[in-house]
């Protein structure tokens, strides 16, 4: 064989070896990727199962509370105690945060031009030390455009983020008009609702002493609940975060409870998820 031909053969052999090596590397990479994909898929499935299970446990507890026929809802009940501060294992973590949405003032109470609701919001805004004209602008916007699904929707109505951040401290947006639950409202909100420091102080002392407020213990102390307030709730939110292996999932759900006795139903009316 001539030297030139020998060189050509050598080059061909090297090309074949290089090609075979590349194919083997590709197959190994594909196998690794397939294994990694399978593991990631399994992690995500497990994370989603934990998330749905946590939400379902809250739904069940909130429904059972309704079936029991209690005339109060407060943060000492089982539906709230289903909250979990982060639980950590070798594979991941789970946290569950529950909030009574009726612990806040519902901005959609303003959508039908309700003057009492507007006055209530005015007292709340004034008590917070913020812009005293905010309630006028919010009431006008909702009267014109109708209810909002979320406070963040106010941005589309021309409200700056600073106003929305202020409102988030003491208000929410629910699908129908709702009273504020005196059992779960913050002390500062109660003070604003009563517009009477002495009465507000007596109510807060009663709640602290008795764990919750009922019609009976309010009557005994001579307290009268302000208009636009109640002692029970129909709407709560459930915020679940799960980290499992390579997967991280999050869900914020709004639950609504309807009916009484054996006919109580709790359903998820809104769910926002993130991965």
UniProtKB/TrEMBL annotation:
Superkingdom, taxonomy of origin: Bacteria
GO cellular component, as recorded: plasma membrane
InterPro entries per UniProt: GspK (IPR005628), Pilin-like (IPR045584)
Cross-referenced Gene3D superfamilies: GSPII I/J protein-like (3.30.1300.30)
Keywords recorded for this protein, A-Z: Cell inner membrane, Cell membrane, Membrane, Transport
Entry keyword annotation includes Cell inner membrane: yes
GO-annotated biological processes: protein secretion
Compartments reported by the entry: Cell inner membrane
SUPFAM superfamilies associated with the record: Pili subunits
Record-stated family: Belongs to the GSP K family.
Protein name in the entry: Type II secretion system protein K
UniProt organism field: Hyphomonas oceanitis SCH89
